[in-house]
Specification:
mainly alpha, about 90% helix, rod-shaped
Length: about 80
């Protein structure tokens, strides 16, 4: 059984993880929209925005993985 302080931390981390996963989904949707636009209109500004979003997405994915690792460690 997990100690109460750890349980609260784990619950907080799970909420944060869910929020970040929702952010990932939103960013993926934006990237898809930009990709659809770029297929029709090659635009450097949109291309740069897509690349920025992709880098942010990778960063968020790394944070989610770190949170998952912390949760596993706290549960052990």
């Amino acid at each position: 059984m997990v100690d109460t302080p750890y349980k609260e931390i784990i619950d907080y981390l799970k909420d944060a993880q869910l929020d970040l996963e929702n952010a990932e989904d939103s960013i993926k949707d934006m990237i898809k929209k930009i990709d659809a636009y770029l297929d029709e209109n090659l635009n450097e500004e949109q291309f740069n925005e897509r690349e920025f979003l992709k880098s942010r997405l990778e960063y968020i994915e790394e944070i989610v993985e770190e949170i998952e690792d912390i949760i596993i460690d706290l549960q052990s």
